[in-house]
Amino acid sequence: MGGHEIVYALAPHAWGRGLGTELAEAVVGHGFGALGLSEVHATVMAANDASLAMLARLGFVHRRDIEEDDGSTTRCLSVVRGDRARGRERWAAEGAR
Q: Among 38, 88, 32, 33, which residue's Cα sits nearest to residue 60?
């Protein structure tokens, strides 16, 4: 996809504690703020529902899939600086239903 990509990994004992969200928010915020990026990308295994949901909450949207040689699917997502707040607002509204 080109450009700047966020990459993160957490040990299983750290899952489900909000650490990934905190980390991703800080990195994306730094990218848009201090670095002046206009877009940030992420790639996630399609089976990683928790990571996909976390990125969606941060405003990332699905762009395309990559079919890997082993038969798995990698999802490519991105967030544009101005779309980040709108994505988070949309998620909050959907969660309130």
A: 88
Give CA–CA dist 24/7, Å, rounded.
9
The fold of the 12-95 domain, in CATH, is: Aminopeptidase (3.40.630)
The radius of gyration of the chain from alpha carbons, rounded to an integer in Å, stands at 13
Q: Which pTM value belongs to this model?
A: 0.79
Q: Which two tokens stand for residue 71?
A: 């038969």
Distances, alpha carbon 19 to alpha carbons 44, 61, 81, 91, 96, in Å: 17, 21, 22, 19, 23
Question: What type of residue sits at position 53?
Answer: A
pLDDT in tens, 61-92: 999 999 999 999 999 999 998 876 655 555 55
Taking alpha carbons only, the member of 28, 33, 82 closest to residue 58 is 28
